[in-house]
Amino acid sequence: MIPALVASAITIASAWSRPAVDQGVVYATISNASARREVVVGASSPVARTVELHESESMKTTMAMAMAMHPVSRLPIPAHGSVTLKPGGYHLMLLGLHRPLVAGQHFPIVVRFADGTSARTTVTVENRAL
Amino acid sequence: MRRILAFAAALALAGCAQRPQPHFNGTPLPVKPAPSFVLTDQNGHAFNLADQRGHEVVLFFGYTHCPDVCPATMAQLARVYRTLTPAQRERVRVAFVTVDPGRDNPPTLKRYMALFNPAFVGLTGTERQLDPVYDAYHVWHQKLAGTKASGYLVSHGSSVYLIDPNGDLRVLHDWQDPASAIAADVKELLA
């Protein structure tokens, strides 16, 4: 599905992913050059059945740290600001990969915004830790 | 008497020179035997922690459907492993214990380990086998409703445990610690 409206004030930079079998992840920096807030409401990619926005959060337990994760339905990108999706924070989850992702591979992803516009970028699969 | 004291002091000094107090980048733990367990590895073989004496064990708890923290940690541990010499690698076992036995069977674990290092050990078992392991290592974990597409998510303890070649639990690392800091501790415990 090619969206009709392209969010011209939005740029998605440094998008990367990891090698994965069933489920993958996408990290990137989403910047908003406009004077109004933009809100991410979804994403899609031909490599996966579904793409969801999730957030990991660290929490303290009795002995050690733990990580909790939950789906996020809206991610605001402030006016003239940016949000970085990174390990241990916001990330796009690729569910139901059609085939495994391997290092060096590139694939497109489209991020949708609340105003009906969308932005596209190319993701590189990297053997990277953090 | 003075001579004996001097001798004792010299011995103590020599002892210090030979084996200085280890310095760790991670959180040092009171030296105690690591709680033992027997689980099943990705090839369907039994993995008994007690049989790993002489090897350092790097232990992490996670699940293969975890897209963010688990692969980040496993990629970190793969980097740590790459910094070891072949002789050191022979003496280090990196083991991943699932907190999601419902989905993580040996074939799933095998494909997952291959993403990072096929030498890594992926461990699963029945809930009856795993629950005491989570308790013993204080691994908090909780299944959370996900979405229709993601099924369910598991929040879980994200620490990395270093068990020395004597079988004692020694150091705790956070998953976000730099690979170089973890690697230094792994090597310290081999010394």
Question: Distance between termini of chain B?
Answer: 36 Å
Shape of chain B: globular
- What proportion strand of chain A? over 45%
Question: Helix- and strand-based class of chain B?
Answer: alpha+beta
Summarize the helix and strand pattern of chain A as letters.
EEEEEEEEEE
Q: Unreliable segments of chain A (pLDDT under 50, ≥5 consecutive)?
A: none
Computed over alpha carbons, the radius of gyration of chain A is 15 Å
Please trace the helix and strand order of chain B, writing H or E for each element: HEEEEHHEHEHEEEEH
By secondary-structure content and strand pairing, the structural class of chain A works out as: mainly beta
Largest sheet of chain B: 6 strands, mixed
* End-to-end gap of chain A: 32 Å
User: Assembly type of the shown chains?
Assistant: heterodimer
Number of helices of chain A: 0
Q: Most extensive interface, residues per chain?
A: A-B, 37 and 35 residues
Task: Provide structural commentary.
- Chain A is an all-beta fold.
- Chain A is 0% helix and 58% strand.
- Chain A has strands at 10-17, 24-32, 38-44, 48-60, 65-71, 75-77, 81-85, 90-97, 106-113, 118-125.
- In chain A, strands 1, 2, 3, 4, 5, 6, 7, 8, 9 and 10 form a 10-stranded mixed sheet that branches.
- In chain A, a hairpin with a 4-residue loop joins strand 4 (48-60) and strand 5.
- Chain A is globular.
- The N and C termini of chain A lie far apart (32 Å).
- Residues 7-16 of chain B have low confidence and may be disordered.
- Chain B has helices spanning 2-18, 69-82, 86-90, 106-116, 127-136, 179-190; strands at residues 27-33, 38-40, 46-48, 56-62, 92-98, 121-123, 141-145, 152-157, 159-163, 168-174.
- In chain B, 43% of the residues are buried.
- With 191 residues, chain B is of the alpha+beta class.
- The longest helix of chain B has 17 residues, at 2-18.
- The chains are: A mainly beta (130), B alpha+beta (191).
- At the A-B interface, strand 4, strand 5 and strand 8 of A face helix 2, helix 4, strand 7 and strand 8 of B.
